[in-house]
């Protein structure tokens, strides 16, 4: 299994369960990790791309022969059985993830890694009464968000900053998130300097980044 920091981080968020599902499974590495480490009894893999799904089938051929892996060429959760207890959806846009969950189902546990529009994912989960238990940013060549949600857990209070940037990023900040904020602040500063005039949307973004940085630094003390 190729162990990039991104894959290692996602693996670290997966809990033992009976039935695991990887939506948009690509090469099938995450199902392989769960099965090889006895973290699940069975796995479902799905992908809208038949060529990608075939790669995963080859990787997991032994488990497929044993009846422990079922594959589905479909959009999102369209054909995935609803007995999946933990679902991973990684590497898609936030709006796409929300669409998958709206038209599919909400399992007992979700591990999500949106590539953009993370705020829309957070908002959908919270409006659906689905408590977010982990919500942070990490770096692996670029910055990624991870959002873990679990039914039955105590909901956390999300203000507007937490919705935009992630709860754990603000209240238990890591170095990757602080670096992200400073890089984004510099981008805004450079853009405003190059324009030679105010750009309201950029100024507002810079203001929000500054507020998030102050909140995160305050909680480091």
Structure overview:
The protein is α/β, with parallel strands linked by helices and 221 residues long. The chain folds into two domains: 151 residues, Rossmann fold, CATH 3.40.50.150; 46 residues. The protein is built from ten helices and seven strands. The N and C termini lie far apart (39 Å).
Biggest pleated-sheet summary: 7 strands, mixed
Look at the structure and give the mean pLDDT. 95
By CATH reckoning, the class of the largest domain would read: Alpha Beta
| CATH fold assignment of the largest domain | Rossmann fold
The sequence of SSEs as H and E is HEHEHHEEHEHEEHHHH
Helix fraction bin: 40-55%
Low-confidence stretches: none
> What is the overall number of helices?
10
SSE class: alpha/beta
- Give me the side-by-side strand order of the main sheet: 3-2-1-4-5-7-6
CATH superfamily of the largest domain: Vaccinia Virus protein VP39
Distance between the termini: 39 Å
Query: Which term fits the overall shape?
Result: elongated
Q: How many DSSP-defined strands? A: 7
What percent of residues are in strands?
15-25%
State the CATH architecture of the largest domain. Answer: 3-Layer(aba) Sandwich
Radius of gyration: 19 Å
